[in-house]
Amino acid sequence: MRALYTAATGMAAQELNVQVISNNIANLRTTGYKKQRAAFQDLIYDHVRRVGAQASDQGTILPVGIDLGGGVKTVGTPRLMSQGTLSQTGNDLDIAIRGEGFFKIQMPDGTYQYTRDGTFQMDNQGRIVNAQGNPVQPTITIPQNSAGITINAQGQVSVTLPGQTTPTVLGQIGLTRFVNKAGLQPVGDNNFTETPASGPPQDGIANIDGYGDMQQSSLEQANVEVVSEISDLIAAQRAYEMNAKVISAADQMLQSASALFR
Amino acid sequence: MENTLLIGLSRQMMLERQMDVVANNVANVTTNGYKADRSLFEEYLMPGAHEDNFVGRDRRLSFVQDRATFHDFAGGPTEQTKNPLDVAIDGKAFLVVQTPAGERYTRDGGLQINAQGQLVTASGNPVLGSNGPITFQQTDHDITISNDGTVTVLEGVNNAADSIRGKLRLVSFAQAQKLLKEGSNLYSAGAGNSARPDTSARVHQGFIEKSNVNAVTEMSRMVEVSRAYTQMATLLQQQSDLQRSAIEKLADVPA
């Protein structure tokens, strides 16, 4: 009874579907989160009667064959890198990106990770760091007692030093692009690392070459849409139930067959 | 006497295959671009020894066999995803995919970009434009796919002018039923069936075509199949009871 196993693949696929959807809903309020979706494909087919086979000695050709499919597989959970909405926070060191780029964060071991989460703070040395305390690249140190941090659309950070009237430029926060953003590997903490699928990182400057621009005192919300997630959830749950029904129907058929032998 | 059993068995085997087809449809109820399969049946006349010259002719035995599964190419519902790399095809056309085994065709428009910048399917096979794979440059952004499949981007600094990166190849077939499902949402053309350019099809960016499996239909077909199977089993059971009692009665030696 192939139907049993076919329906089992369907149930497994829907289980994964619900997992992906629930993770999206859980991260509804996560700054810079990008939603995922499960992508499914049909499994290989058993061509019982191949289309185009000869049906008679006179050379009659079968117009259609018998193809029995084996169910469904999950091919991946691609991430949708669309822009999230920006919300004003009023915090000087909150930066949102409008466009393609990522912030580059240096980890304690010297490697780099990338994020869309621009919730930055100052550490005890005055460096601009992310929530985990890792500096955003290139590292910018804000002198003590300086006032009025401004970050322009290109990422230039300027402050007014004590005893001066004109702002001084301290440096420029860079952005990094990837050919295939969806191929980045999520590593938690809102960060991503490069993979063979994402292509190598290309460092650049905001507002040039399609790197997107920066907006100070704003944060990018998750790009999860509640309504579509909930409707996907309902569809996944119902699909799961239906596959379970197929299993019980196939079971009934087997039962009636085995009841022949008393 | 045994013919009843054999004919019943032929129907049961056929129902089992029909159940497999239904199960595959239900399993793929959330597979983008999936097209449902239907089973077709035919009567099979037993080509046994027979003599038709007498008044009381031999009656032919008629078995049943499944003749084919055919694809239901009706459009599935389209869902708006707002993802620039999702395309839904309005019409009978297919996208052309380059696989190691040759050209394949798909209705699944959930596309991605690989590390080389090529437009690929979820399995990583390039989707072909009229001049081969469609490749994006490193500074491209804001990808737009027009209704006729033309892929344009804004390139780097030049935010005013579009650059064309290619045009999606859309093909359709004279005999769509000959298309062979290969798995992975791909079809191969099948023998003597060639792809021809389809100019009437339209592409919608930011939408995706869902599976066209109608859950209600499949569920009712499933109930029908499993009931028919059970019924057949009962019939076979009664038949064998009949045989047993006949043998017992006939073998009863009167004392």
Automatic annotation (TrEMBL), chain A:
Chief localization:
other
SUPFAM superfamilies reported for this sequence:
Flagellar hook protein flgE (SSF117143)
> What GO terms in the biological process aspect are recorded for it?
bacterial-type flagellum-dependent swarming motility
Q: Which GO terms describe its cellular component?
A: bacterial-type flagellum basal body, distal rod
Report keywords, A-Z: Bacterial flagellum, Cell projection, Cilium, Flagellum
Q: Which Pfam families match?
A: Flg_bb_rod (PF00460), Flg_bbr_C (PF06429), LlgE_F_G_D1 (PF22692)
Domain Flagellar basal body rod protein N-terminal residue range list: 4-34
Q: Which residues form a coiled coil?
A: none
**Annotated compartments:** Bacterial flagellum basal body
**Residue span(s) of domain Flagellar basal-body/hook protein C-terminal:** 215-260
UniProt domain Flagellar hook protein FlgE/F/G-like D1: residue ranges: 96-159
Source organism (scientific name)? Nitrobacter hamburgensis (strain DSM 10229 / NCIMB 13809 / X14)
InterPro entries, per the entry: Flag_bb_rod_N (IPR001444), Flagellar_basal_body_rod_CS (IPR019776), Flagellar_FlgE/F/G (IPR020013), Flg_bb/hook_C_dom (IPR010930), FlgE/F/G-like (IPR037925), FlgG_G_neg (IPR012834), LlgE_F_G-like_D1 (IPR053967)
How does it associate, per the subunit comment?
A: The basal body constitutes a major portion of the flagellar organelle and consists of four rings (L,P,S, and M) mounted on a central rod. The rod consists of about 26 subunits of FlgG in the distal portion, and FlgB, FlgC and FlgF are thought to build up the proximal portion of the rod with about 6 subunits each.
The protein depicted here goes by the name Flagellar basal-body rod protein FlgG
Automatic annotation (TrEMBL), chain B:
Stretches assigned to the Flagellar hook protein FlgE/F/G-like D1 domain: 88-153
A Pfam family in this protein?
Flg_bb_rod
List locations, semicolon-separated. Bacterial flagellum basal body
Instruction: Specify the Flagellar basal-body/hook protein C-terminal domain's residue ranges.
Output: 205-247
Q: What residue ranges are annotated as transmembrane?
A: none
Which BP terms does GO give this entry?
A: bacterial-type flagellum-dependent swarming motility
- Give the Flagellar basal body rod protein N-terminal domain ranges: 5-35
An annotated GO cellular component: bacterial-type flagellum basal body, rod
Q: Enumerate the SUPFAM superfamilies for this protein.
A: Flagellar hook protein flgE
Query: What InterPro entries does UniProt report for this protein, alphabetically?
Result: Flag_bb_rod_N, Flagellar_FlgE/F/G, Flg_bb/hook_C_dom, FlgE/F/G-like, FlgF, LlgE_F_G-like_D1
Q: Which UniProt keywords apply?
A: Bacterial flagellum, Cell projection, Cilium, Flagellum
Sequence similarity: Belongs to the flagella basal body rod proteins family.
Q: List, alphabetically, the NCBIfam families matched.
A: FlgEFG_subfam, flgF, PRK12689.1
User: Subunit info?
Assistant: The basal body constitutes a major portion of the flagellar organelle and consists of five rings (E,L,P,S, and M) mounted on a central rod. The rod consists of about 26 subunits of FlgG in the distal portion, and FlgB, FlgC and FlgF are thought to build up the proximal portion of the rod with about 6 subunits each.
Q: Which protein are we looking at? A: Flagellar basal-body rod protein FlgF
